[in-house]
Amino acid sequence: GAGVSQTPSNKVTEKGKYVELRCDPISGHTALYWYRQSLGQGPEFLIYFQGTGAADDSGLPNDRFFAVRPEGSVSTLKIQRTERGDSAVYLCASSSLGLAGLGEQFFGPGTRLTVL
Amino acid sequence: GQQLNQSPQSMFIQEGEDVSMNCTSSSIFNTWLWYKQDPGEGPVLLIALYKAGELTSNGRLTAQFGITRKDSFLNISASIPSDVGIYFCAGPSGSARQLTFGSGTQLTVLP
To answer: Residue A98: is its pLDDT beyond 50?
Structure first.
């Protein structure tokens, strides 16, 4: 497809387990972003990649969260020792640089993570 | 960090009515963005504003970038059922690549 895709669409796990969430950005987009959206809230920034490198990871809540983008395309968000408070929708977005240095961010449908 | 205060939190309007929502911040934003999110989907950009005082339209949607750079308004005219959803304001912050979002306005259009 032409848009941002995320897998799985839903993930249910138990407290303490490890999870990986995948994002396939729009082809050719060099910038990739991860956000987390809790119920009734707007998305909150987690991390931003420019190419293969994490240019800004200031939004990661703690060291249980880690993300990679080894070939500058697909990205994986990894959460270790999951906690119930990690339950949320994890959104991925991609963009190419545009006017004013802020290209439009195109969002995927998200992965709904539920930690029991 | 920067925060965006969005109001109202929810709105119930009759089909055909106009609706207005706003977003304020305690700090200056150089770009204001308005997104719409449908259930089970990611946000979709509706309008982008880059200049203080700018008024931009996209079909039945009109948005304004406040002169103080600390607020923005979104108006929807002649609402239709497909306008139902959550509307978010957003602006770049931090490294200027991350977006800060408001908490959203849930819009319900009654037939």
So the answer is: no
